[in-house]
Write a structure and sequence with these properties.
- Helix 1 packs parallel to helix 8, helix 2 crosses helix 8 and helix 8 packs antiparallel against helix 9.
- The strands form four sheets. The protein has an eight-stranded mixed sheet with strand order 6-5-14-15-16-13-18-17.
- Strand 1, helix 1 and strand 2 form a beta-alpha-beta unit.
- The chain is built from twelve helices and 20 strands.
- It has a domain of 218 residues: FAD/NAD(P)-binding domain, CATH 3.50.50.
Length: 429
């Protein structure tokens, strides 16, 4: 295939992680090409959160507030509410919490399309090849041979390194760890959608309501319309089921009325969950799944990134955030060691064990574990939260989670830049 030399880094997967990797490599002067299995990219998915440590890295790539304001809104509050509608915990987020960078709630598909456009503008159309699926690889003394499938047939390309950013069903990971267990399902079903409604609380709040048995999470991903006062509200409704088998046609559209019926009495005056669900244009069903952590993300000149490396439950709202950080840590490793297996080893050592711990924390409900503790102590029904869980206990728990996930305010604000302005790999490539 034209336009690819043997010194290029091959990136498998054109999702958020793969595209930010491409932009990072372009920034530091490393040629790369992205192979994406989907032929025609569309704005898929609903809302995601970008923590300040990821927003900092996007800003460093020139994906600034003006651009992010076009795909989402800065989040200003994170709150938990008990099943009886009473507040459990609330804290400021982003700039309001003292970060030097905001936290954003964005439409995942809109962010993806923004990154697609920027990659094509900066790297050129031929550096993002859609309809090309990476299916395998072979390490060599000088690089890696990558197997690719497309409509015209299978072929091979040679590159310096391969970055497997091909998602939870990663072919690169499957070859690297052929004995890995199957996808892990924790028993929860999620229904996701967006609805037009008036934002509650401060107008830019992320709210978790319920318990591990049944929970709703919602937050705005657009500013309110000036005439109607309505914003686009992203919501996730979850329910743990007794059937222990993972089955069904996941990521499929389902009847909103059937989902709303499972939350029929979740009406608090300030929020009607059934009304919010029924207001969605479409409701999609997903399993809450991840994979068991693996001991390494590296195999010679090949490395994993994003969901291919660490698929995690969305309870921590940090899957996309970590993929962005992965890309920047990888770029820094190449500044330190060139486009070499040594750079991949530095990246792997820096992140694999640490983020594997976050995967397991999210499996235990992540920051929502406070609601699990509340449920265990009082069944989620209380008059005064201080009689059940102290503010100090909740603050300590959340500080511990943020430190583990890499977005504690003191850590983010004090950290040196992963990629200093103007830094280039240059001749070391």
């Amino acid at each position: 295939m034209g336009g690819l030399d043997e010194q290029s880094v091959v990136i498998a997967g054109g999702g958020i992680g793969g595209l930010v990797t491409a932009l990072t490599l372009h920034q530091i002067g490393v040629p790369c090409v992205v192979f994406e299995a989907v032929e025609h990219l569309k704005p898929l998915g609903v809302g995601i959160n970008l923590q300040p440590n990821a927003v900092r890295e996007l800003f460093a790539l020139g994906v600034d507030e003006r651009l992010l304001d076009g795909v989402g809104v800065p989040c200003r509050e994170w709150a938990l509410v008990g099943r009886n509608g009473h507040d459990v915990y609330a804290e400021p987020r982003g700039l309001q919490a003292g970060y030097r960078w905001p936290q954003y709630s964005v439409h995942r598909g809109a962010l993806h399309m923004l990154l697609v456009r920027i990659v094509r503008e900066r790297l050129g159309e031929q550096r993002l090849r859609t309809g090309h699926r990476v299916t395998g690889y072979r390490n060599s003394d000088t690089g890696v041979v990558v197997q690719v499938d497309c409509a015209a047939g299978a072929y091979e390309v040679t590159g310096r390194l391969l970055v497997g950013a091909d998602g939870i069903h990663s072919a690169v990971r499957a070859q690297m760890h052929p004995a890995q267990p199957p996808i892990h399902w924790g028993g929860a079903i999620m229904w996701r959608g967006t609805s037009r409604a008036r934002p509650i609380r401060g107008g830019a709040s992320f709210v978790g309501l319920g318990s591990h048995r049944q929970r709703v999470v919602f937050y705005p991903i657009s500013e309110p319309d000036q005439q109607s006062g309505l914003a686009t509200i992203n919501w996730i409704a979850e329910r743990t089921v007794q059937d222990g088998s993972l089955h069904g046609d996941w990521n499929r559209q389902v009847d909103a009325a059937e989902v709303a019926a499972q939350f029929a009495d979740w009406n608090y005056g300030w929020l009607s969950v059934p009304e919010m669900i029924l207001g969605a244009d479409a409701v999609l069903e997903y399993p809450m799944i991840d994979r068991d952590p693996i001991p390494t993300w590296q195999d010679g000149n090949v490395v994993l990134l994003g969901d291919a490396a660490h698929p995690m439950f969305p309870t921590g709202s940090n899957g996309a955030t970590q993929a962005i950080v992965d890309a920047r840590v990888l770029g820094r490793a190449m500044l330190d060691h060139g486009v070499t297996a040594a750079a991949l080893a530095q990246y792997d050592t820096r992140l694999c064990a640490e983020i594997s711990d976050v995967v397991l924390r999210n499996r235990k409900a992540g920051p929502f574990a406070i609601l699990e503790l509340l449920d265990a102590r009082c069944g989620g029904v209380f008059d005064r939260i201080d009689d059940v869980i102290s503010a100090d206990e909740m603050n300590d728990f959340l500080r511990s989670y943020k430190r583990a996930a890499g977005y504690a305010v003191e850590t983010v604000n004090a950290a040196a830049e992963w990629i200093p302005a103007g830094a280039r790999v240059g001749a070391r490539a």
